[in-house]
Amino acid sequence: MIVSAYVFADGVEFAPEAIGAAAQALRAGQLIGLPTETVYGLGADADNAAAVAAIFAAKGRPSDHPLIVHVAAFDGGMSGVAHYAGRVPSFAQQLMSAFWPGPLTLILPRREGVGAIAAGGQNTIGLRCPAHPVAQAVLAALRQPTAGEPVVWGVAAPSANRFGRVSPTTAQHVQSEFADTPDLLILDGGPCDVGIESTIIDCTRGAPVLLRPGAITSEQVAAACGRALLSPEELEAQGQAAPRASGTLESHYAPNATVRLMDAKALQQALDLLGTEVDKTATPGKTVAIYSRVPLKTAARQIELRRMPSDAAVAAHELFSVLRELDALRVQLIWVETPPDDVAWDGVRDRLQRAAA
Ligand code: TXA
Ligand code: MG
After folding, report:
1. If you measure from the C-alpha of residue 5 to the centroid of ligand 2, how many angstroms do you get, rounded to a whole number?
2. What is the third-level CATH fold of 2-237?
3. H-helix or E-strand containing 56?
4. 258-356, CATH topology level
5. Domain boundaries, given as residue ranges, for the chain
6. Residue 273 contacts by C-beta under 8 Å, 6 or more apart in sequence?
7. Which of 148, 246, 269, 291 would you label with 254, given CA atoms 20 to 30 Å apart?
8. Do domains 2-237 and 258-356 have the same CATH topology?
């Protein structure tokens, strides 16, 4: 059930009943679809073990894959951090001041006795203070209970998709992922600005470790805390095991069609080889989709051509929507032009490589 989080009369405002209903559902131990600036999350009260367990069940996610806990921006996110995290290294503090609220998740030592199920049993916890005003309105409502109600400190929310599939960037995407749960409350906060999941930095290894690239680049992270970043590979070379992160599994974010990355020249060559007919036996409709920054030509009607924006942020914003639209055409193959080898494209390149794996 999609509920608009906004009232569009006389300028845009929050729909107080929608925010209130979402907060009430979370207090009651239910799940909700929650907009954030990156992707939509499937949220539950992070301190309610049964509610958090229901997230794993709804997603079909293995229970040892930890979830991100979202905290309110009140006092810079620090009271949420104090509730869930133990010692916070000073470079992590610098990253919070630089990027929160925003698309950055920090892995911190977990305070004993809190958020154990959300953390997938690890002694660390992933925390993020999201920038989306609707997410913040819900988190603020949970932190300011009416008399008699306990404070809810954080909302555990993985991306609101089935395990391994493409993350949702609209309320409609969430509804289609969980079509078998028609009474799931999905707050509609519009299409997500960023479009790919948050950058994840592990802050429990003495130096910042990049676990997942996102809109905030590794260069920006290094500049903000004055520390060089380690990769999980460098960490392993030092004899430390890299932490488990399902967003870092080799195959993830996968549409139904088979995704392949190619450079522009290989793409045009493949199109020329196909000529006018892709598959004579195929039912009418598209068989192959191409998503490229350069313009390409084809004489075949069964090929769908889409242009990828030349700006990395714009490409990220539409990436998951485009993959879903191409899937909806029931193409068998999606051929994508390999993104530029530039740090601004790290997040998009990473998602496409995993979609293709
Ligand atoms: O942008 C985002 O981060 C979105 C929105 C909803 O906030 N959330 C998201 O959640 O992408 P999810 O569950 O799809 O991905 C979370 C990633 C996973 O790769 C998980 O393994 C990692 O964060 N993670 C969470 N807690 C962790 C921890 N304690 N240690 C290591 N990795 C952790
Ligand atoms: Mg996910």
Report:
1. 23
2. DHBP synthase (3.90.870)
3. helix 49-59
4. Rossmann fold (3.40.50)
5. 2-237, 258-356
6. none
7. 269
8. no
Pocket test for ligand 1, best of 36, 59, 67, 170 (most atoms within 8 A of CB): 67
Alpha-carbon distance of 109 to 314, in angstroms, equals: 34
Helix (H, G, I), strand (E, B) or coil at 289: strand
Residue 251 backbone dihedrals phi, psi, to 5 degrees: -105, 120
From the CA of 35, which ligand is nearest? 1
Q: What are phi and psi of 356, to 5 degrees?
A: -90, -15
| Residue of 193, 203, 149 lying closest to 170 (CA atoms) | 193
Put simply, whether the predicted model's pTM sits higher than 0.90 gets the answer yes
Rounded to 5 degrees, φ, ψ at 192 are -70, 135
Specify whether the CB–CB gap between 172 and 2 falls below 8 A. Answer: yes
Predicted confidence pLDDT, tens digits, the chain (357 residues):
999 898 776 666 788 899 999 999 999 999 999 999 999 999 999 999 999 999 999 999 988 899 999 999 999 999 999 999 999 999 999 999 999 999 999 999 999 999 999 999 899 999 999 999 999 999 999 998 888 888 999 999 999 999 989 999 999 999 999 999 999 999 999 999 999 999 999 999 999 999 999 999 999 999 999 999 988 888 888 877 766 555 556 666 778 899 999 999 999 999 998 877 665 555 666 789 999 999 998 888 889 999 999 999 999 999 999 999 999 999 999 999 999 999 999 999 999 999 998
